[in-house]
Amino acid sequence: MYDVIIVGGGVTGSAIARELSKYSAKIALIEREVDLCEGTSKANSAIVHAGFDAKPGSLKAKMNVEGNRMMDDLARDLEFPFKRNGSLVVCTKDQDASLLENLKKQGEENGVPDLQILDRDELIKMEPNLADDVVKALYAPTGAIVCPFHLTYALAENAAENGVEFFLDTEVKEIKKDGDTYKVVTDKETYEAKAVVNAAGVYADDLNNMVSNKKIEIIARRGQYMLLDKTAGGHVSHTIFQLPSKMGKGVLVTPTVHGNLLVGPTAEDIDNKEGVNTTGAGLGSLAPTSSLSVKDVPYRQVITSFAGLRAHDTEGDFIIGEAEDAPNFFNAAGIESPGLSSAPAIGVYVAKMVSEKLSLSEKSDFKATRKGILNPADLSIEERNKLIKENPAYGQIICRCESISEGEILDAIHRPLGAKTLDGVKRRTRAGMGRCQAGFCSPRVMEILERELSLSMFDVRKSGDDSKIVFGYNKKIS
Predict the structure, then answer these.
(1) Catalytic residue set
(2) pTM above 0.70, yes or no
(3) Which residues are CB-neighbours of 339 under 8 A, at least 6 positions away?
């Protein structure tokens, strides 16, 4: 019997798990994929929004602004990449500049600090590559960029260190009320809990509708992106937004915390909740649309493209709280943009509700910090030489594009909730995220996974069960 079971191992579920781990309770998190951060949390804009977009008084506004404020301390305590680069919402000569004033007033009402409207002369000093038609912009210095993978893993690892149990590769099939508890039926076994937290992303409506007569509907909204090489990373230094529409904040152009340039997303409502494929039409729309805000984006330096799904609720706001007719069933549903920015605050908000309902007491021995994966690039030459002398694996470069060593890969595999797949290693270390997109390093990473996890090479996977890479021999040497 668990006090709380959380369903969903994305950034929202992981944030809730960490906050609940501050209490004396038996807590579990169930995730259907073989690793964490496999859904919406792995494929998004990697933006920490300032908080001026959401309607004042909405949960989106409240959670966004508070989540933004929390990021500096979290990044320090949990050691994940985070940078306050500031954001600009640009207005062209053919657009209504009064919309920027409306956004500014809305942001100020939400509690966003230091918002300014800048004219073209000031903007070009900040961003020389803005499109020629840009005449004004709303500047938000608290806008930021983050690594969504590292944020999610950091929250989850810290939760695990504080006692949360994680059941990965475990799919919830049914949730049913049984007296004063819930039975969570999975494809492995059935678990029982006093309370359930639903953080299941695009499938959150399915879980809610199993236990509540107040039905919700989540629409999968696909966003497609292009990622450019690090040689293009300096094309802009701020996150450049276009004036938002009813479908979202439009196509942005932004640097990433790792030095690349990211362009996207599209916004397409689709019926398939597994529809993370890119399309020619979707990717083809990014260049002409982005050119309205940023000129001369070097699209020949695109190294990969990808798509992600946002969990869009038909009511347009986050759904956070206890279901009216299902006591102790708590939703964290419809967590679309600015979900990544809001996740830390959602964690606090949900944990407070659950702890009060279950009368949980706070721990005295909560461990608030977590050590990230050591990055030798952050060390001086003397420190790196000393590290390699002590552990030669840090001198063995596996991924040439990103200069990732075997030592970093070993750390990623053997840390709490460590990597078990190629994608797991890639997202934790960036091995395979460079210009060649794993063309060189995949065989070596597979060998390391085979050795360290005592696997057969035939069982090494890219991500899930259906992604095995080696299927047989083309010849044997006797």
Answers:
(1) 49
(2) yes
(3) 11, 12, 40, 44, 310, 311, 318, 346
